[in-house]
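In response to reviewer comment 3 from the previous cycle, which asked for concrete evidence that the modeling workflow produces usable outputs, we include below a single protein chain processed end to end. The sequence was submitted unchanged, and the resulting structure tokens are shown without manual editing.
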Amino acid sequence: MLSRFSAQSERGRAFLRMPQPSPSKPILLAGVVLFALGAACKGPADYRADADKEALALVETRRAKLALGDGSFSIEPPAGSLRQRLLAGEVAETEPLGLVECLEIAAENSRDYQRRKEDLYLSALDLTLEHWRFGWQPDASADARVDGVGDEAQSTSGGARLSIDRLLGNGMRIAGDIGLGFTRSLLASDGWHPVSDFGGSITMPLLAGSSRAIVEEPLTQAERNLVYSVRTFERFRRTFAVDVATRYYRLVQQYDAVGNQERNYDSLVLLRERNEELAKAGRLSDIDVGQARQDELSSKNSLLGARERLANQADDFKLFLGLPVETKLVFQEGALAGLGGGELETIELDEARAARYALDHRLDYMNTADQAVDSERKVKVAEDALRTGLTLAASGRATSDDGQPFDYDFGKSTWSLTAALDLPIDKLPQRNTYREALVAREAAVRAAEQSSDQIRNDLRELLRSVESRVSSYAIQTNAVELAQKRIESASLKLEAGRADTRSLLEAQRSLLDAQNAATSALVEYTLARMNLFRDLELLHVDAQGIHYDPAEFRDP
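The workflow returned the following structure tokens.
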């Protein structure tokens, strides 16, 4: 066994020492192929960069075409976000926050917002796959092997092959390939035996699957899915902005309620101290002192509850923004003062005009309506699958002579022509798919109708809500003024001994209730107006915040 192995090793060394022939065309061709294969090798980072470049370009193009967004888009989390700086201890609290700052923080930290961006990206990535399926698909491979018996190697071989394939819109598939192979016996010194071959094939459906609309349906649907995703993402951005604004203003409203309660408590403390001094002087009874003390304690308890609600609400807001709950939030002054003052603006919109405009511009409704069209195409695809199939195919291949990789005798080439008929004898799976497509079409039509009805209903409610909030704010503003006058009057009468403490306490409670109600009406009006313009698709979100202009409202 040892002698056989040694003999084989000597043959191998003899082969290595054997003078090599001068480079020939087959050797050069093999070198080019191997070089191309090496150059085509990419790492994961390269593939990721290619995918991002292609998918993000599609997203930006579609957003620009639909006039949605500013053209910039990325799914990479921003570096140096507020959350990261807080967790790293670089900052201990937020800068004074306004609505714009809250929108920015929510967009960069919200997990839901990030997931929505990724959904849009993945839709574009799906479209790149469909583009690839209808483009030229090159492929290359290479192999090398050694064959032997027992512990003795007898021959070696290797080769490389290049191929290309493409599906056309009419269902025709074209394929071609060229290969180069080498064999050599290790037991003899007859040198390498290069052989090359090339061939191609064409396959063409003539009946089922021959329509361009049927063949390109996956590409068409992928294109439309990306449009839907762009609309969905932009609609989400707008509803998300309204959600941020809603939480922000309700939190600011709670801050205002705590402030009102603190001022009410301080007033009651002063009233109780004043009554105690008057009681000592014999000018008030113990009943008046007790009433003031009772309202003071009740106000203190309400203040504690309001502060607790504020703390809970602030923590919920931090979680919503994606910030650590230990973060100290600092808000800009005058957030409520900028919402209104004096009389609020009424919105004069005709319900029928508003409904028509919304149905022409609502991004979510456009998707629902277009998906009904998609369902109609799916029915036609399912109908086509029930047809008889007839496919023609032609193929040919030429192989060089042994040792002559560039000499072909085309008289020895092989070819074939085939026709395949697929009769619709047992089409139960296709039958079920067709019936399911019919059901899905009816469901899509109903979904579009329901969406239309829901939009009309929501607009009616929002229009009534805005009108009601305008009146409510006016009423509560007047109530605040009246309560303040009652307090002044009751204080003077109590000082003069012509009124009891109960009248002043009731006026104080009325002022607190009216102040909170006025703030609530102002916030509810702002949110109702924002929701109305959102549902009319008149709301825009950009780096400056949330904008909505009734002047954009026009008849469709």
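Residues 1-26 have pLDDT under 50 and may be disordered. We consider this sufficient to address the reviewer's concern, and the full set will be provided in the supplementary archive.
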